[in-house]
Q: What sequence folds into this?
């Protein structure tokens, strides 16, 4: 396993980060099996584990907590996230001081630990001033609840704004960003990754397999089973009848040939690809089974050369998204018509 410094935090993390979104009711409901997968990842040298309070409504954090019992807590860099609604009622979501203080306490309880190494706000919150968010996260660092904090899936302009506000107000700043990044979703190369690099942020990328599309199971001319695996969770991303998916299938078929030409599988190539970018610190792998974990960790030894990267560029040009990688959030500027339309009298 290789290790890199996480931004300017001084924390060394493995280039593979174990993502736990598939642990719990959404993916693998067998807690004992999930604990074994986490232990196997730690034994492989992975010291970085990422979860979130909304994964299976807190169940994923509970599973991670079980897995850490009996292990030296100091040996694990533990990351989690908060933002999405959790439970019924108002004021149980977002990036406000009121909610994040409670969310961190709840995560600590489920994880069975006294501190979180990296706490991330899961998405932007247009209702909350970024100054308030940075302020409460800095207070949580001083209180010893968290060691560092970052953002997840923030647009480049909001990352830049957060750093400007932190500098003007004398606040602690986001140390990391967690964007979606894969061979099929390269949009962050245009702005997010250069911005994160400019500000010295650590970057841990998610969905290197493009929600499973680069698992090797999907290729032109082969029937797509929409009733199982990731396809069952988001069938619109896999259904060949949906516009755009045929382009993904065609690209996946060409990428399989690229992988085979350098002696690896498509998942191994897909996991290796984000780590080539100079802004990227670690790539999150999210196995559901032990077999998937064993397959993905093989990718740590794959280092694509320039010729291979040129072939990938020819299939999916730099900065190009073949699909919208974030199905959980869209900016208010697009979802709220009032933000896109002048009042009738001003048109």
A:
């Amino acid at each position: 396993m290789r290790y890199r410094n996480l931004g300017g935090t001084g924390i060394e993390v493995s280039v593979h980060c174990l993502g736990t979104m598939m642990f719990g009711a959404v993916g693998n409901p067998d807690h004992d099996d999930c604990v074994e997968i986490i232990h196997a990842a730690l034994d492989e040298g992975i010291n970085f584990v990422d979860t979130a309070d909304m994964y299976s409504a807190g169940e994923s954090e509970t599973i991670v907590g079980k897995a850490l019992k009996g292990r030296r807590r100091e040996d694990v860099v533990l990351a989690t996230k908060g933002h999405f609604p959790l439970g019924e009622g108002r004021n149980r979501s977002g990036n406000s001081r009121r909610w994040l203080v409670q969310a961190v306490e709840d995560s600590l309880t489920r994880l069975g630990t006294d501190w979180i190494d990296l706490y991330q706000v899961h998405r932007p919150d247009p209702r909350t001033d970024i100054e308030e968010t940075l302020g409460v996260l800095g207070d949580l660092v001083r209180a010893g609840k968290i060691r560092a904090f970052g953002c997840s899936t923030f647009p480049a302009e909001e990352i830049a704004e957060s750093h400007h506000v932190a500098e003007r107000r004398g606040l602690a700043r986001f140390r990391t960003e967690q964007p979606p990044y894969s061979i099929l979703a390269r949009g962050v190369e245009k702005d997010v990754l250069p911005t994160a690099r400019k500000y010295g942020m650590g970057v841990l990328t998610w969905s290197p397999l493009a929600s499973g599309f680069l698992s090797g199971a999907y290729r032109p001319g082969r029937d797509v089973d929409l009733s199982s695996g990731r396809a069952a969770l988001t069938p619109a991303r896999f259904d060949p009848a949906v516009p755009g998916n045929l382009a993904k299938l065609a690209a996946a078929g060409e990428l399989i040939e690229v992988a085979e030409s350098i002696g690896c599988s498509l998942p191994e190539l897909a996991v290796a690809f984000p780590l080539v970018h100079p802004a990227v610190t670690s790539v999150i792998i999210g196995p559901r089974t032990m077999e998937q974990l064993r397959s993905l960790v093989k990718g740590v030894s794959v280092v694509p050369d320039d010729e291979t990267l040129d072939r990938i560029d020819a299939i999916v040009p730099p900065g190009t998204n073949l699909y919208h990688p974030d199905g959980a959030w869209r900016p208010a500027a697009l979802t709220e018509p009032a933000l896109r339309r002048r009042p009738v009298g001003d048109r």
Remarks:
- The first helix runs from residue 31 to 43.
- DSSP finds twelve helices and ten strands in the chain.
